[in-house]
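Appendix B. Raw example, untouched.
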Amino acid sequence: MKRQIRARKGFQFLAQRLYIFINSFSVNISLVHILQITELPSSILHQRFLLSLLHCYRNMASNEVEVDDKAEWSAKNEGKFIRILHEHVKKGDMQTSTFKKKIWNEISDELFAETTKRYLVPQLKSKFNRLRKKHREFSDLIEHTGFGWDPIANTVTASEEVWATYIKRVSGVKPYRKKGLEHYEILGEIFNTSTATGQLHYASI
């Protein structure tokens, strides 16, 4: 069991370094480049294994494959991630509905500096998209007829009948019966950027 854990950690470390290298420079790299960047002799890992790993991360870098990493996000780390996103939005770094590659790399480094946990760019984008979905669902919920929201207590009020009917249609809002979406207003400033980005940028000057 301990050997399997060590092997898994070793693979994760290698995979992380590979992705950072690919994401920072180019997806057009060879096996020789991999061995150079990881400083590992070719005899340590089988060549086919390395090529398979390289193929996987080429896909991640070029196709932006979404990563399912829900279990890896603590509430504390999520809060720090949201704050970092908000700071970049205030600086005007979100040009459309997302950030450019350079900014995502900066966000990854900033989050690592605060949490000592390395989240890869695809993981950050995946979390970003989930937060956007949650914000949209919660916005629709509190704007729906029959619902009320107390922003101070962050609680949603509605009759049992209204809740039951709405949850049948949108099951993802069920947790909000106990407590509203955390960081809702800050998320609104992040995702409602079509009108807010410029205002946030000038307000921070």
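End of appendix B.
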